[in-house]
Write a structure and sequence with these properties.
With 374 residues, the chain is an alpha/beta fold. The protein has 3 domains: 2-131, Globins (Globin-like), CATH 1.10.490; 138-225, Translation factors (Elongation Factor Tu (Ef-tu), domain 3), CATH 2.40.30; 242-364, Rossmann fold, CATH 3.40.50.80. Helices cover 40% and strands 18% of the residues. The protein is built from 11 helices and 12 strands. It has helices spanning 2-10, 14-28, 41-56, 61-75, 82-99, 106-131, 208-215, 251-264, 292-298, 322-328, 343-355, and strands at residues 138-149, 152-159, 170-174, 182-186, 197-202, 222-225, 242-247, 271-277, 302-308, 318-319, 336-340, 363-364. The strands form 2 sheets. A 6-stranded antiparallel sheet has the order 4-3-6-1-2-5. Strands 10-9-8-7-11-12 form a 6-stranded parallel sheet, with helices on both faces. α5 runs antiparallel to α6.
């Protein structure tokens, strides 16, 4: 409660508080500046979001441990060492003390120190465990770059060594054009015998990494990949039918899950995919030699329903906002569900599924730490 009360005071001035934190950090520990990107705007936002997520997650220790473990493993790619956590903690407390005003006293400071010790310990333990079995990052050569729409590219990468992951997960990517700037992208295929990894990338306005990947990357370029993360994985042996909601490039992890279901799913288990976009041309993953329609032709247990929310010809697609269209086909009791796409769509979709009979524990998405598209 002390931490939440002090954060409530800091939140309206979060920009100043985080700027002060980084000023303290780089003033007292200038050697750490090289671990951060040249432009700090996005990094500042991420710090406060991470703080809020940790504070709001204390009521669910298991989920907090999972989240912080992934964060600790992911920070290895920046070159973060165990000794850095204490330096960061002191500067963080200094910034909070300055901007929490009357809410900062000895009891609040002690609460923050205890909380930060817990957070850093969980992250350090996860990082040290990961270091025993995997590198902090992988080098990945672009071997294929296919433009599916003017602003969407499908990129295939060959990692320099074995890369462990599950369908439904994502990883951080760094390009040679924006050092130390990482963005998260989901795997668009299940693990393959040849070890290749596929990503769907949409160039977004002012998105440094996404624009570089879509408009500049080419075969032969080398990217860096962080470790796989995310909890949107599915036990295909469980037997419950699977319902998937995918908007835009959110189809990438859903397509990977379909591949995984084909390889490991139990007989009789059905998979139903609702794939949404504004216009028909944006449903880039429907057709082609590796498209969803081709998969439907091979797997009778798979159903794919395209959904269009904008104006223009709809063809055989359903029309309307994706979550509401899914709701019209319910109830969905007994299903397991995954959602991937724009955050607003995922949040609305979760509400629709809950009202349609899907228990909360059977709904998976990765809005926590939302994979960035920038």
């Amino acid at each position: 409660e002390l931490i939440r009360a002090s954060l409530a005071v800091v939140e309206p001035v979060a920009d100043r508080a985080t700027a002060h934190f980084y000023a303290l950090l780089f003033l007292h520990h200038p050697e750490l500046r090289s671990l951060f990107p040249a432009a700090m705007d996005v990094q500042r936002d991420r710090l406060f979001r991470a703080l809020l997520a940790a504070v709001h997650g204390v009521d669910d220790p298991a989920a907090l441990r999972t989240r912080l473990g992934a964060l600790g493993r992911g920070h290895r790619r920046y070159g973060v060492l165990t000794g850095h956590y204490a330096q960061v903690g002191e500067c963080l407390l200094g910034a909070l003390a300055r901007y929490a005003g009357g809410r900062w006293d000895a009891a609040t400071e002690l609460a923050w120190r205890r909380a930060y010790r817990l957070v850093s310990t969980l992250m350090i333990e996860a990082a040290e465990e990961a270091a025993r079995t995997s590198p902090p990052w992988w080098q990945g050569e672009v071997v294929r770059h296919e433009r599916r729409t003017p602003d969407v590219a499908v990129i295939t990468v060959r990692p320099d060594q074995a890369y462990p992951f599950r369908a439904g997960q994502y990883c951080g990517l760094e390009t040679p054009w924006w050092p130390r700037v990482w963005r998260h992208y989901s795997f668009a295929s299940a693990p393959r015998p040849d070890g290749l990894l596929t990503f769907h990338v949409k160039a977004v306005q002012a998105g440094w990494v996404s624009n570089a990947l879509v408009h500049r990357a080419a075969p032969g370029d080398v990217l860096r990949l962080g470790p796989a993360a995310g909890t949107m994985t599915v036990d295909h042996t469980a037997g419950a039918d699977l319902l998937c909601l995918a908007g835009g490039t959110g189809i990438a992890p859903v397509r990977a899950l379909v591949e995984e279901a084909a390889a490991y799913g139990v007989p009789g288990r059905r998979v139903e995919v609702f794939y949404g976009a504004r216009r028909a041309a944006e449903l880039y993953a429907l057709d082609g030699p590796d498209g969803l329609r081709e998969l439907v032709g091979r797997h009778p247990w798979l159903t794919v329903r395209p959904v269009l929310s904008g104006t223009g010809p709809a063809g055989d697609a359903l029309t309307g906002e994706l979550p509401e269209v899914v709701g019209r086909f319910g109830p969905w009791a007994g299903r397991e569900a995954v959602l991937s796409g724009p955050p607003a769509m995922v949040r609305r979709g979760v509400g629709v599924l809950l009202r349609s009979g899907v228990p909360a524990e059977r709904i998976r998405h990765d809005l926590v730490g939302e994979p960035a598209a920038g």
